[in-house]
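Long-time lurker. I teach an intro course on protein structure, and each term I like to show students one example going from raw sequence to a predicted 3D structure in token notation. This year I'd like something fresh instead of my usual example. Would anyone be willing to generate the tokens for the chain below so I can use it in lecture? Attribution to the forum is fine with me.
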Amino acid sequence: MTSTETAGQPGNDSDSPLRHEESDRGAAPQFVLPLVARIERAEPPARTDALETAARAVLVLLSDERSAGDGEWAAAVRDWQDARIRKVVRRARGAEWRRAGALQGITVTGHRAEVRVFPPVPLDGWPKDLARLQVSGTELDDPEPPGAPAAGAPVLWLNPGLEMSAGKEMAQVGHGAQLAWWELSEEERAAWRAAGFPLSVRSAGCAQWEELTRGGGPVVSDAGFTEIAPGKTVAVEGVDRIRSLPR
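-- Reply from a regular --
Happy to contribute to a lecture. Here you go:
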């Protein structure tokens, strides 16, 4: 599902694209970060597992050495972050998943979920084997309530007033994870990566959501191109917990 992040709290690091005005980013050439979720018909992953895996996949791509400095993906990542931050989640199974796995990218696994993230591509320049994959209809459920968020890790809280497909939510929590990443120093990022990017995704209560969006932490605002009207979708709570991880 297509998703575009348009607002949030500026990060501490100079590579945060939020240092640019939105008008500047909208005028730049547009790129998109492709994510493909493996959803086999007989054994689909649980919804929360897929959401958390998608969020970590974004972080794995951002932290990969190929995305930094003179790495082979670095120019594409910079161009993507200098424009609107677009992510598109597609789904695959069977032979589709195997073809996606043959393309340059990184597969991230959760409890049972698998999400493959690829370096950014031009908005109209998708590889053929990814462009043919379905975007709509990515529906997943949690067989049991997900329980309390993991202790000592940030939580990506979903807006309880919105109804979104699983694919749309996967893109939104990817935005939330990216906003948390921009809040951190290089040392803090390295510690988070070394710990395996611990995080949780949960749906907030109504009163809790109001507090979260007024608390000064990173908040994702969707541009409203698909599924929902423009507005706030994810609030990130607990970035300071990342700073407490062992160096």
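Some talking points for your students: The chain has a mean pLDDT of 90. The longest helix spans residues 47-63.
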